[in-house]
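Dock magnesium ion; give full complex structure.
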Amino acid sequence: MNVLHKDSYTILAVDDAKDSLLLLECDLQQAGYDVLLADSTESAFEYLKSTQIDLLLLDMYMPGQTGLSILMKIKADSQFDHIPIIMMSASNDEDQVVAALELGANDYVNKPYNSKILLARLKNSLVLMEKTIQLEALANTDFLTKVNNRGSFESMVNKAINQANREKHALALAMFDLDFFKKVNDKYGHESGDKALVEFARILTASFRDYDVVGRIGGEEFAVCMLNSTIKEAFNACERCRQLLMNSAIQIEFDGKIEEIYITVSVGLVSEAPPINDYDDMLRRADHMLYQAKENGRNRTYV
Ligand code: GH3
Ligand code: MG
Ligand code: MG
Ligand code: MG
């Protein structure tokens, strides 16, 4: 059964023929979709840039630029390449249809279209898009703490490194390792340990800016990559997090009653100005700093 999950979906219809657009608008609105109409490539891209579009209905032949070249432009842009596209055309030029599908169009519908069939295909494309988004989120998220998992963290940091090199600003990377965490598990059980990990991830995420990248890179090891922040700002953020954790009572169930426990974290921080070499190198250096923080008493940040 194909089920959609959002309250509303925005469909952008692109066609140079105004009457085609009005017909589509009528059918799509009747089916409960929000509809935007564009009769040129320019206005299509204006909508794409300014509005969250869930699906594109794209006419194959448009004056000036063919639908195929618009399709290529969208698929080449990582901002838009996830948007499902259904091509529409009155011509039965099979080479064009095959070319569109090969270029990444999700589906093709002949004009004049049968509105029931168009709506059914459109819904299928939307369902498939939602499933893809869900799977991508699952593949990138740590199941327990909901922060980025190790693989996703690495790929996001690599993007951040490229951006930092391009824009010539420094990048900071901090590694966090909970102190004596084995003891928490030994004394209170693995489930309580899990709860403490979730609580730490919440505090960690709250301590940094939305555009900093937070990830769980091992059992009780986390890392944060800070874009465009000085070493002092990065240090302050790490310290804020460390102190917040130290002062946060974590409630766990133990021996049939609720108990409050306190945990601490050690932090290793490094910062690098462009040209930044690579992720592994930064992580190794942060890990070395973390080792120093552990050696020198734990519950501290080493730079
Ligand atoms: P240190 O201060 O030197 O880091 O001591 P530690 O005890 O934290 O370090 P150690 O590496 O000896 O132990 C890490 C512990 O983290 C052991 C392991 O059971 C626990 N751990 C790792 N992943 C999970 C998890 O997903 N859930 C729970 N509950 N515990 C975990
Ligand atoms: Mg046309
Ligand atoms: Mg560890
Ligand atoms: Mg530890």
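Observed: The CA atoms of residues 84 and 247 lie 48 Å apart.
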